Amino acid sequence: MLLKMLQDTKSHWVSGFLAGDFSRVSPRLAEDICKTAGVSPRARPRDVHGQAAENLYKAIQSTKIMAPPTNCLSPIGERAILSGLYQQIKGDFYTAVSRPPAVYRGNPFVIEAGLAFGRGPEQAQEDQQKEGGPARGGRSGSGRRPRARARHPLREPGAAPLSAVGLRHLQVGARHDVAQLRRDRNRAARSRPARW
């Protein structure tokens, strides 16, 4: 990738290439990188290849460079995630988490996750049939259409794409939320008077 960038740049010098084509690299820092790599700051970028390009790459990796800005990200937000979960999935418990933006290897990212816990689609359909409601596709007595069958995000393909990081975040958050629910339930059970 660095070789392609060196060939495609409009800068006339390597120091100008580093300062212009990389985020948060000042001209002084660009000269320090060139000095570490053993490349002349006034060398033409198209002439840097082979061992010189490898040294330049290693020098970039070893130099402390400020993280790039994260204003290019558009987080969804916890409120919007919860709103989408409420509309699409029947459940007893809903939660959403939005982490602050971070940078990994020069790439800004944000982690956001939502979780609905409780009745699954099969249980919701059984509950509807027990209540005397219509079968799938029918109309209820109130004249309103029944809700669409909720898709399980982990069992049905295409329901909700998750990355490994997002899935791990959901698992950790769900464990924390379930533990909090258990603590609240136990606290409420202790505070209730015993019935004989």
Tags for this model:
196 residues, mainly alpha, Helicase, Ruva Protein, domain 3, two-stranded antiparallel ribbon, 7 helices, 9% strand, elongated
Tell me, rounded to a whole number, the average pLDDT. 76
**What are the segments in which pLDDT stays under 50 over at least 5 consecutive residues?**
133-142, 154-159
Give, in order, the helices and strands: HHHHHEEEEHH
Count of DSSP H/I helices: 7
Largest sheet: 2 strands, antiparallel
- Number of separate strands: 4
Share of helix, binned: 40-55%
Radius of gyration: 28 Å
| Strand order of the biggest β-sheet | 1-4
Class from helix and strand fractions: mainly alpha
Strand content: 5-15%
Number of domains: 2
> Which of globular, elongated, flat, extended, rod-shaped describes the shape?
elongated
Distance between the termini: 75 Å
3D architecture notes:
The chain has 196 residues and is mainly alpha-helical. It folds into 2 domains: 61 residues, Orthogonal Bundle (Helicase, Ruva Protein, domain 3), CATH 1.10.8.50; 114 residues, no CATH class. It is 44% helix and 9% strand. It is built from 7 helices and 4 strands; from the N terminus they run αααααββββαα. Strands 1-4 form a two-stranded antiparallel ribbon. Strands 2-3 form a two-stranded antiparallel sheet. A hairpin with a 2-residue loop joins strand 2 and strand 3. The longest helix has 28 residues. It is elongated and about 80 Å long. About 8% of the residues have low confidence.
